[in-house]
Amino acid sequence: MASLLQRVRALGDPTYLVAQPGQHRALRFLALILIGQRMSYLVLAGVNATNPAAMSFRSQVLNGVLLSVAVLWTMVFVFFAWKRGWFPRWMVWADIALSCVLLGVVTANCPPGVELTSMNWSPKHALATAALIGAMLPGRQAVFASLIPMLGYVVALTEQVGPDARLFPGLVGHLNGCVWFALLLFFMRHYLCRQSKALDDAVAQRVAVERDRARFEERIDHHRQLHDTVLATLTAIARGGLDHRQEQVRRRCAKDAEYVRRLILEDRSERAAGLGEELTALIREAEEAGLRVHYMHGEIPGAVPSRVVAAFVGATREALNNVLKHSGADQAWVTIAHEDGALVVRVVDRGEGFDQERGALGFGLRWSVRERMVEIGGELELFSMPGNGTSVELRWSRQPAGRIEATLDDTGLVEQPRG
């Protein structure tokens, strides 16, 4: 019962069939059409059988038994469509045999003169059989198999009524219907299966492109991380800002070496920690490098996506590296705030600063900071003046507002309206 309820819920989920292969979706769609066709004919047969004003069959009991058999056989179709999404080949031949039996027995059980009316529901079942043949069998087999119920209908009518010229229009109409039902379902199946295969191939190609793009973006991220960690450490040592003989410097070098080792081994198993924990660890690194950091934070949202956390941490790391390398200050202030639905991280120093109108921006500020924020739909706001320090503000919101976005070029900070 639990499995049945799960299947019912899955059918209401628009992603249920999308997750299946294209051919599976096409066949399941055709199965629903075939079952619906059969049910529509059985409903009409049931209405005629229970209508007191209609002419009675020669044996109402026999008609009830035959109708029950047809209903149970349709439930077998429902079972296979539900479990497998399509029908086994043997069901075609079993359905042909049942149609031939119904054509003979139901036609013989009809009162004289109504063999070509809706009271004789067996030809409708034969139409469903023709549709099943066209949907399941290959071309030559379908042509051969379609002749069997057609011949059964001709034999049933001639045995019951005889060679009457008045039967000719109705007989031709039924045979014409069988042919077209078989043809339509034959071409429908082949068209849908081919289209679904083409769609699956296109999706596979798109997935391959996205995978290559993800690998490229990952390499770019690795380059940024190397620039912000290993290269920053080596640059500081080379300029004399760090003494490699100090214990904290050796620990920093060991941590950078471990990061490079993870890149080589493609170890992606570590889960990203929360933003607060990541920034705390980052500030500890900056303090080990000789920068005093005043860390203040208010309420930090807990459900921040991992890619957003990674972007904030990477951008903040580069901002602190810039304080160490360029500002001439030995202190920095890092603040986290949740303002007007936006997550904001500020890195402020009271160092030398620079002229935004004249000073060219380096790789770190343009790529390690700005591009990281752009990729997550965030913003960078930069404020700096000579002798008055620098403020780097990183801002991200789940629903970006139509506000001014700061963009950087090679000459300074340019404000452009968003959207």
From TrEMBL:
It comes from the Bacteria. The chain crosses the membrane at residues 61-80, 92-114, 126-155, 167-187. CDD domains: HATPase_UhpB-NarQ-NarX-like (cd16917). It holds the Pfam family HATPase_c. Residues 316-397 form the Histidine kinase/HSP90-like ATPase domain. Signal peptide: none annotated. One of its GO terms (molecular function) is kinase activity. Keywords: Kinase, Membrane, Transferase, Transmembrane, Transmembrane helix, Two-component regulatory system. This is Sensor histidine kinase. It comes from Allokutzneria oryzae.
